[in-house]
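Dig into what follows:

_____
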Amino acid sequence: MAKSINDSNATSVTSVLVPAYNHAQFIEACLDSVARETWPRIELIIVDDASTDDTYSLAKEWLSRNPGVFERAVLLRNQVNLGVGRTLNKLVAASTGTYLTVVASDDLLAAGGIQARVDALRGSNSRGAVIGDCWLIDGDGIVRRESAYVVRHRANLSALSSPRAIRRELILNWSVPGPVLLFHRDLVQTLGGRIYAEDLVAEDRDLYLRLMAADQLRFVDFPVAYYRWHHSNASAIHVEQIMGELVQAERRHMRSFPPRFRVLIGFVVVGRVLRTRAEERGGLWHPFSVVHRAVTRITYRCHAALARRQKHELAWRPGPDGGRSGMSSRT
């Protein structure tokens, strides 16, 4: 792996990793958004995963039209389709930046998103990972300036913003869209030298479970990207496979969490299994699934109330002089 660049500099190099596959209609807009990013030192790495359309040639033409935009720009092509996980690991291995962020070839970066996430990591003295908010964009390029977390999953942004509540929130209500993660290069070694599972469609959920188990994930309430929601999203095509992978990943990583989180994960796994059985077999599985969903709603309301209380405690905790300490749950 390439040598990491010293992150003591105010503007360390950030590697923007673009896994590309059959997105000829979107790839140029994606690269335009990376060029518009305000972070001054960007390394662009693109790996085309054996696209059958013009994605690779369009990316190559774009780079030839825009020389010198980035400190370093690399375009690679897989001779055969390797899948998302292997392609992502290939991108990580080809990069040299201190910070790494991924944007799929159909998504867009939002200007200032790298700065917001790097600031969040540095502010918490962390060499882990941070996710930001993002807006939705459709296949025609129409932007909804609303949180993808909230619109698609009704996520609790206050809970995500709290270091004490983010793990509960993501266990009970998985809501993270694709192009929002930024992580420090040291995390590669922390996670055993490999970031992404290579045999999964839901490779991101597996990664986030490992990050949460190590308490290495934070959220910044700032739009860092545009998530394109259209009919060919992997999450829209492989619904049943992803559901099975979620259960396997949660079972696999459950014991890495502190005990209080293991109970929550086990509860969520039971719900996924009940839902699948009810859809496949019906019968008595259906009422059990309905009861579990009702209990889940109550549990989530309790979690949201606790998150509000914890946020209030952090924001208003008295300082040594009796006044406010100035602490905030935002990271």
